[in-house]
Amino acid sequence: MKYVGAFRVLILVLLVLCVRPLAAYPPPPDGPPGPPSTDAAWTGQPGIDLGEATQVYFRGLEAYLDGDRDLAALHFEAALEILSTIEMEHGGPLDEEHERLRRKAAYLLGKVSRNGEYEILWSETDRSLCPPPDSEEALPEITILENEKTERWLDYFRRDARERFTTYLTRSGRYEPAMRKTLRAHGLPEDLAYLPLIESGYNPRAYSVAHASGIWQFIQSTAKRYDLRVDYWVDERRDPEKSCEAAALHLRRLWELFESWPLVLAAYNAGEKRVMDAVLSAGTRDFWSLRLPRQTRDYVPRYMAGVLIGRNPEAHGFDITCDPPLVYDLLEVDQATELDLIAECCGSKPEVLKDLNPHLRRGCTPPGEGGYSVRIPAGTLARCEEALFQIPKDRRLASASQFTVHRVRRGETLSHIASRYGTTVSQIAAANNLRNQHFIREGQKLTVPTPGHSDGTRYAAADEGWREDGEKIVYVVRRGDTLGAIARVYRTHVDQIRKWHGLGRNQHIIHPGDRLLIFVPKGS
Questions:
Q1: The one catalytic residue among 199, 245, 256, 338
Q2: Which residue in 491, 496, 487 sits closest to 521, CA to CA?
Q3: Tens-place pLDDT, residues 191-249
Q4: Which residue in 158, 339, 400, 493 is a FRET match for 221, CA 20 to 30 A apart?
Q5: Is the model more confident about 302 or about 70?
Q6: Is 199 assigned a catalytic role?
């Protein structure tokens, strides 16, 4: 065992000697770099200082983000060894920064050590003095700089993007009050409520080329980290409340990593790993000195410009009347129910229900889930519950053919089932969260999306055919109907009906009870 101990000490020494030292590590400035500090870093031994301990600590963070717990543990332990050496030579901790670094390194070491032997380093007293990363203590406000880069984005928003930014500011009224409440609850600066001005324009259905979705623009992997549901039926990245809660947790975590709002914002845009690499490469936490992608370099001053306008639109030439905050009741439904039907029970328009529930991707609540809450217009709960109670449960969807439950028979494959119902293998797999499309078992129940509803939300694709002089009608398919016959009756073409409903050229099967949306001239 003594050789194991000696080897461990050797590893720690090598880590200390091989890491390129940083300068002393004061809290990073929120603005562009100023003149160098004249305060000399304290050095207990040659090559041993607080900056070097911080460098080793950040190497541990990098390993932690990469999922290498063992390497992270070695770095955190090495950082503690350096800090202990400083304390012995100096007669105690240097300052608050020294003590905070020691406590954070000890906490993370206890978190990543497999045997838990270091948990004692993070005592109850330590928690009260230096809360762990999930603490909700109030964090510092964000320093908004009015420098040359911020001014350039202010000019862009006031001139080139004026119309678009006006729309964003108007729409912000729906969500900003609730966002501020959530941010306050997590001890975060309320100015972060302006982040969606830059991310999505406060549009819950915003979708980026990087496959980020929702007001806070989460990609799937980040959404999963914060337990946001993303599947065939529901995308909670589009849920204004749940996504804001996830964003608050994410921003809080980024603060615990970087303790600098410019770095937090940069990491929100580019990812913490990329920003961490830039910090380690440059040897500084000063955002304005880092080598980062141009989009990220622009992101921070762009956000700051958005905050300046959001705080006082009139001062920047925007005449804004914000939309009123969203208010609603919660209706609990005990099975898959179509939003159009709930809207009818509320005496409201389908568009209102879909705006209140942008996370429901298929225009209905998920099947097989009792007690699912749906947002409905405020003041309509009693009326809606009474009206919905009168409707038989087997008629809660537009038709039985919107989603069919199929019990797998011996020898069947997803391909056979998809062909039978006129849908695709990928849609069945997505509807049932199947990871392996080649493995289904006899007797298994599958929810099968059927033609007319393959476009994501009911009738969403039909808007492609809308004309100013046209009217929408709903045709209920009867026994013996074909798409060709229906097209002839309404003087349109089969291909047009397919286009309205997002159907492929080979999808022609319809069933009695299906509802088709048809556009006809007004008065016809």
A1: 199
A2: 491
A3: 999 999 999 999 999 988 788 999 999 998 899 989 999 887 899 999 999 999 999 99
A4: 339
A5: 302
A6: yes
